[in-house]
Structure formats: structure tokens, C-alpha cells
Amino acid sequence: MPGNRQLRVRSGNEPGPAPSMEPEGRGAWAHSRAALDRLEKLLRCSRCTHILREPVCLGGCEHIFCSNCVSDCIGTGCPVCYTPAWIQDVKINRQLDSMIQLCSKLRNLLHDDKLSGRHTFC
Predict the structure, then answer these.
(1) Which of 24, 38, 84, 105 has the most C-beta neighbours closer than 10 Å?
(2) What is the DSSP string of 34-72?
(3) Lowest mean pLDDT among 12-16, 47-51, 79-83, 114-118
């Protein structure tokens, strides 16, 4: 045998090299930032399109708005689908508000300075 090379067989118990969790060229935590961006798109007001602030749901159509964005629609109709909207139909969504606050904290933890100006509240 030339060179006396010994082949080494890796057993299933030996750890292999850790796969990279970062897409090339996008920096640390890129996957988490991308997932957070997708989630924040779902947490936008149907009227002002900013991240929801004090989210409320209209009972008749279930569209979600910031409480300030829907206040002038009570007694008339939903600004998206024009379903009648009455004061008794407006429901504060505290669970959604908690999720939005957690997203904000996660955004701060990820130190996403370059995108922070884009996430405005109404």
C-alpha cells in the first residue's frame, strides 16, 4: 500500500461538523429575522398597514385594526369590506397585543438596527 494511509470510519456516535444555520452573506440570525419579518407582516392593521397598536377585531367581519384606526368607523362600516360595525361588535384582542409585544422584544434582541425605522406604529 503506497503511503500507509489508514481509512477512518466515523461511527454514528461521533459528532460531525455542525451545519451552518446562517445563509451566506446575510449576517448572524438571518433566519430568525426573516421569520420575524414574515410574522410582522401578519400583524399589520388592515387600515394603516403599520404593526397593530391596541388591536381590536370587528365581530361581523373579523378584520383587525388598531383601536385608533377603527374609532371613526363605529356605527358605519368596516373600512375594508363595509360590513356594518357597531360598538358591541368591537372586541379588544389582548392575546394578539401580547404577541405583538413579544415580537417587539424579539426585534430588539436581534439588534435589527437597519430595519428598526420600518416598523412604525400608528
Answers:
(1) 84
(2) HHHHHHHHHTB-TTT-SBPSSEEEETTT--EEEHHHHGG
(3) 114-118
